[in-house]
């Protein structure tokens, strides 16, 4: 099918037979494959084992080894690379898919049978992982093309962005999907001491927790299997979301250079930096708020105060960050670090700063260190700790690090409170005061690392899972839960203070309806109607999170997705009607498949129904339409529908009308529309709003609750009534 000249279903081509892709993608990636010697396979049906695997890890920097201390390039990147290498050593073929940005090449080969392919999305600049989610549809297009040409038997997705892209590929190619979250958004919310029942947390623009959560849950629901890196992860999914998924818990591993360093200690590296063996504490990794590098400096300063003689000539080595040109995430950390150094009178004589270093150098530094120190506030795993143990160093690590689930305090590590540097320093001094203590801890840590954190063993366990999924024919369509998320659809709501006020006014009315429906084992279905730009979508989305403060869960259904034509096609139809002077006849509830939406809502009302299917679309892919997309209702108490003509719906228990007049906010409407399309005819837009205003004003009388322009709640006595 051809839409707007951009994307097609390609039945005549060798690849891409079963799905839609942008027309230029397959030729582009076929050329890249041929130029770089990546095999092109034509699959002949379901595979019995995973001989060709696509790994999807879209954010961050890449290399072999990946650069240390740069944004979004920590343990996850090492993890993906090392598991992929382990598979390649087994004779499997692997392609890692990441996002392309300058100045890096589109394709790199890291080993026999192992390639990195960078897909284009969102320009040539670096994009931090918290902001990469809107690029997911375009990145996923590249993943599908790569996986198809490669003849992938299975796909594995990493973190929220990579998991969703992998799910799209698994859906379209009908192959098994395994996901590894690495870190859950809810876990970070809790670790930062934030209140998960406060909607403001989820709408925070620094972390974009709301979008991350949507993508995580969609991918977990659509996956055949989850690999959790910590024991905590499955428990928090069950506790907070009431969700359980097929899973196994596997820790991450340490790179080969760290295990091999004992055979060739290479003291020359120490001499280059003026360091002496066992006379320095070490930290290496990212310089982000979560890593609490200033806490490492405070621990060092406290140790010098507690035992100045014992710490005499012991230095602190900090590896990572950008000492001479701070990245945005590092600026605040550097300021805090500077304050900590000043507080303890520390200078470059005591504290050595090194930029990011390659693995062999890090392995040497760890092997000869007195102790590796990590004081992380948030650390899903703790790759630097595993690597230091593999290199034979004793480690002191924050109790917040996921790796501590495999550790025994005092046996193979010193586990400390990152918020109490004085007590942590005392633990270090106590260990130093008893000869042989740190050596014993180092030996225990090295034994743990060799038994648990070697990549070949981890790779074998994960490959066994993929093989088993292939052998039983896992992988089917009908699991693309991500396609209903606002971010995938391409028009995410921008919640402003007036939207939050409206949602708070609505909350008690909605909660009352939930309680009214509960005895009959029914869900409350609530519709928000009103003019375009009245804030229906924003209010519904904020209300979804506000309900959590009452112990309730909400799900949003986009009424716009039920328009009979997709966004671009409907816009063109309106323009044609406008040109012919027939816009009045075209506009109205007839544009929407009200009957279908009502039928879906009738299903959703029944609490025994855990899933419904709804239409959706993706504006970033030329308004590509998806006729049947699953939407999970598991655990939901409320279904929130936003639709201009929502008063026409029947299967709802609360009809809310947001009263506005487009003429009073015409400047805002114009700015929003011109931002989307600077070349549009705004006279046409004004005409649409004028006609729409007249239609829906006549529908207002059937509302149960009218919220005025000043957002005062006014129960409508002529309707079925509220309260």
**Helix fraction bin:** 25-40%
Gross morphology is globular
Overall strand count: 24
Described by strand count, sense and barrel closure, the largest sheet is: 8 strands, mixed
Rg, please?
28 Å
Percent of residues in β-strands: 15-25%
Rounded mean pLDDT score: 91
The CATH architecture name of the largest domain reads 3-Layer(aba) Sandwich
Unreliable stretches covering 5 or more consecutive residues: 1-14, 718-723
Walk across the major sheet and give the strand order: 5-6-4-3-7-8-9-10
Determine and state the CATH class of the largest domain: Alpha Beta
Structural class: alpha/beta
- CATH topology descriptor of the largest domain: Rossmann fold
Give a verbal description of the structure:
The two termini are 50 Å apart. By secondary structure, this protein is of the alpha/beta class. 40% of the residues lie in helices and 16% in strands. The longest helix is centred in the C-terminal third of the chain and has 21 residues, at 497-517. The strands form five sheets. It has an eight-stranded mixed β-sheet with strand order 5-6-4-3-7-8-9-10, with helices on both faces. It has three domains: 25-253 and 463-478, Rossmann fold (3-Layer(aba) Sandwich), CATH 3.40.50; 256-451, 3-Layer(aba) Sandwich (Rossmann fold), CATH 3.40.50; 490-715, 3-Layer(aba) Sandwich (Rossmann fold). It is built from 25 helices and 24 strands. 50% of the residues are buried.
